[in-house]
Write the structure tokens for this entry.
Amino acid sequence: MLRAAAFAAAGLGPRLGSRLLSAAAIHAVPAPNQQPEVFYNKIRETKALKGQMTYPRSVGRVGTPARIFSKIFINNEWHDAVSKKTFPTINPSTGEVICQEDVDRAVKAARAAFQLGSPWRRMDASERGHLLNRLADLIERDRTYLARSEHLELDASLAVCSALETLDNGKPYLVSYLTDLALVLKCIRYYAGWADKYHGKTVPMDGDFFSYTRHEPVGVCGQIIPWNFPLLMQAWKLSPALATGNVIVMKVAEQTPLTALYVANLVKEAGFPPGVVNIVPGFGSTAGAAIASHEDVDKVAFTGSTEVGHHIQVSAGRSNLKRVTLELGGKSPNIIMSDADMDWAVEQAHSALFFNQGQCCCAGSRVFVQEDVYAEFVERSVIRAKSRVVGNPFDNQTEQGPQVDETQFKKILGYIKSGKEEGAKLMCGGGAAADRGYFVQPTVFGDVQDGMTIAKDEIFGPVMSILKFKTIEEVIRRANNSKYGLAAGVFTKDLDKANYLSQALQAGTVWINCYNIFGPQMPFGGYKMSGHGREMGEYGLQTYTEVKSVVVKVPQKNS
């Protein structure tokens, strides 16, 4: 799966990619700095993580990134929280502390930056695009460091971004560098191109009037991002908002604040005016709730659980009826028809579920397999899961790193216990994968029934549930029998079946003979309780603009 994701990011076909990745692609990925300098609250010191990590397979010591920023970023400056309180950031590979909220100050800074006549409001749209491109260039410069936070040495400066993502989040460094950072750069540059191209129209209204529409920025946008793709979700939120001229107060996940704060430093370096981008690390119950209920925030965009999405919507309605876009949970069906290419379907279904340690809102976590190929699919899926390499995320052979934290680790093990107790057949995995850190074995359940907890709840971990079906009509009914509707997959050689299923499935994205294919050009979002609104593509600009109608009386109108 890791490799499939890397192929997609690199623009390689899956079969071509499998021949190239081990040689060219991996060799080109820079290695992380093992003992860099770290900045904690502007105090310069040299630090490396202590002790050896214990993995299912023996690997070496993990390194730490070159620079860590751990304060609040408001008005292009670093600040302590008003309360002076801090919270620890944990390395999920070892369980060790990496480094130790508010909203009102950030909102005031953003509102000041959005005032009429401010440098940001008077800036040409093309210049906003230039700043976004400059930000992308800086992220690319520091790509290795950021990937290692969310792990590989072309030059010293490149070693920054990828490393930090892996260190903070636990995902394999190769994925951070080749997939996450690649998609981050594409997203920012895509919306940089839109900055001076998303505009209003003249309207031929009856009578002697000159009429036109303006696309105006919404204003102060509160953005709350999750921990599973810290850099990518930050790019998905920042890019369309900045391209359309908004100002931002972003709450980053308390589990993974490091890359977002590093990017904040690059925002300043790129030349964005003070107050345009403000980053506030903190907990959802405090910083997140403050953004959702703030009377001077004009819009809130949230990615996370459906449960929290409910609270966001209620808080927005009870305060100033701010705009809300929600990208929430999923329990996505992945349908394997009997005529599917079995080799491809097994590998893609594996990738659809286990990618990012299973921590994907759109993971193909309900695998429906037609009955005449069910036994073969289960057997081959178990073999593939058993071969999955779990371990040090900085090792290029690793496909699966640790879960993000102890809470998620214990939650996943609880779901596995539930699956066994409710009668699903544990085919492989089912426990911790190491004696240290938050590693979970790749787990496959067979004989799963629709009413089981593991078939209904979003597990958000490396647990595959395989269900059997007979007919297309049956699988459509069962696939749609969920409160979620984020994504779906279909594997078949029959184009008529594929088209029929794509129309029948209640999901915001349907992948045919592929899965987890993303690009900034294509909108993403859910049906039902998977949220509302769309991110990415031209559709992603709509939620960050107000359409104003202007009608001017003129002496005489001529065609």
